[in-house]
Amino acid sequence: MNTPTSRPATGALLTGTLCYLFSSVVWGANVPLTAVLFRTFDPFFLSPLRVVIATFVLGGLVIATAGWQALRVPVERRRLLVMSFALAAFFFLYNLGLRYTNPITAAAIMAGSPVYAALTLRLFGRAPLDKGFWGAATLTLLGAGIAVYGRATDSGQSLRLEGGEPLLLLAYAGWTLYSIWAQRWFEPGVAQLRRTFISTVGTVMWLTLAWAVLLAIGFVAPPSKVPDAEAVTYLLITAVFATAVGGVTWNIGVNRIGLAAGALWQNTVPVFAVLISMLFGLRPTPEQVLGGALVISGVLYMQWRKRG
Question: Do 274 and 148 form a contact (C-beta atoms < 8 A)?
C-alpha cells in the first residue's frame, strides 16, 4: 500500500484517482437505487444477496483473467475470517445503524468519515497521514456540514439521537480496517481483483449467518415479495457495479495513492448521489450544491498536495 511518506508516481496517482472517482460515482448511484430496492427487499436480506451476486461476478473475472487456480485462498484462514468479518460488519452495522438513526443525524455522522479513517489509521495503520490531509479534510467536513444543514432545513428535520449512532461509527471502522488488511495481509503480487474476490467469499458467510440469526429470533421476516423487473435490474446494477467493480477499484485506489485520500473521496459519494438522484426528479438545495463544491475542492486539494 502506498505510504504517506512517499509521493506516488504520476501514473499511480492518475490510476488511483480514476479508481476512487469510479467507486464514488457508482456508490453514489447505489444510494437512490437501494432506496428503490428497499421497497422489495429487507435491508438485512439485501446485503448478503447483493454480495453473493458480486462474488460470482468477481469469481468469473478472476477465472477469465488468471485461471481457475487463482480461486484458491492465498492468505491465512484466520486472517481471511478477520478481514471478511470487518467487511461484513460494515454492511451489517451500516444497515442496522441507519435503521435506528435519524436521517439528518446519520448524514452528519457520515460526513465525519475522514476523521474516523484518520483515527483508525493512526491506531492500526502505523503510518503518518499524508501532507495536506487535515486541510483537505476540513474542506470536505465543512462542505458536508453545509449540505447536511441544507437537507435538514429543506426537510424540516433536525439532529437527534436515536441509539444507532455508535453502530455507524463501528461500521466505518470496519470498512477502514478491511481496507488496511486487504493490502497488508496478501502477498504483494496478488492482484486487487483477486483480493476483493477472496474477501467477499468470507463476507457472504458472515452476512448469511447474521441474517439467519436475525430470522431465527424474529428480528426479520422471510422474503415475501416477488421482485419485479425493475427490482431485479437495480439489484444486478448495484451488485455488479457498486459492490463488485466498485470494491475492486476502491482497493486499487488504496494501493496506488493510500487510504487517507480514499477517506476524502468517500465524502463525495453523497454529492454524486444527489446528482444521480436528479434523474429521479430530486432537486438539490443551494446548500447541497455549495457543500458538494467544497467537498470536491477538498479532494482536489489533496490530489494537488500529492503531486507537490
Answer: no
Query: Taking Cα atoms as reference points, which of 272, 256, 238 lies closest to residue 91?
Result: 238
Alpha-carbon gap, residue 35 to 70, rounded angstroms: 35
Task: Report residue 167 as a C-alpha cell.
Answer: 453502530
Q: How many helices (H) and strands (E) does the chain have?
A: 13, 0
Q: How far apart are CA 53 and CA 239, in angstroms?
A: 6
Q: How far apart are CA 165 and CA 121, in angstroms?
A: 21
Q: What is the mean pLDDT of each run of 10 residues along the chain (308 residues)?
A: 56 90 89 84 91 97 96 93 96 79 61 71 66 67 64 53 69 91 93 97 95 93 88 95 96 91 80 68 63 65 60
What distance in Å separates the CA atoms of residue 36 and residue 229, rounded to the nearest whole number?
A: 12
Whole-model pTM: value is 0.81
Instruction: Tell me the angle at which helices 133-155 and 103-111 cross, rounded to the nearest 10 degrees.
Output: 170
